[in-house]
Specification:
ten-stranded antiparallel β-sheet; mainly beta; DUF1934; Lipocalin; Calycin
Length: 146
Amino acid sequence: MSNETIPVHIKIETEIVDDQNGNENISRTENGSYVHRGKVHMIKYKEEMEDLGLVHTTIVIQDDRVSIKREGSLQMHQVFRIGSSTECVYHHPYGKFRMETTTHHMQFVKGIGNRSGRIYLNYDVALNDQEPRRHTFELHFQEEVA
C-alpha cells in the first residue's frame, strides 16, 4: 500500500458522437498528481477552461467504478459503473442540467510500479432527458521525470 503522491503528466482524449451535430474531439494535456491507497487510485488536476475559469478535477478509480468530480465554475460528480445508469446534476454557469450516464466499457491499466497508467471509458450521456450521445474518454498519465 502506498500513500506517495506522484507528480504526473496527463493526456486526455475525449470523443463525443452526435448523430445530429457531428462528432466532437477534445484533446488536452495537464499536470497533476496520482496517489493510490490499497485498491483505490486517485488522479487530481486543475484546468483553466476558456470563458469559465479554473476547474479542479478528481478521478477516483476502484474495482467496480470510476468517479469524476469537478469543482469550480463547473460542478458535478459523475459515477461510471458497467451496466448501470447513474445520475448527477451538472452545474454550469449557464444553468443546471440533469445528467444520466450509462457505462458500456471501462478499463484501468496500471504501468510498472504504479508510475503510469491509462483509464478508458465508453458511455452514453443524456442531458435533461435529451437523446443520449456516445462518449469515449481516455486518460493517460505518466510520472513526471525531474
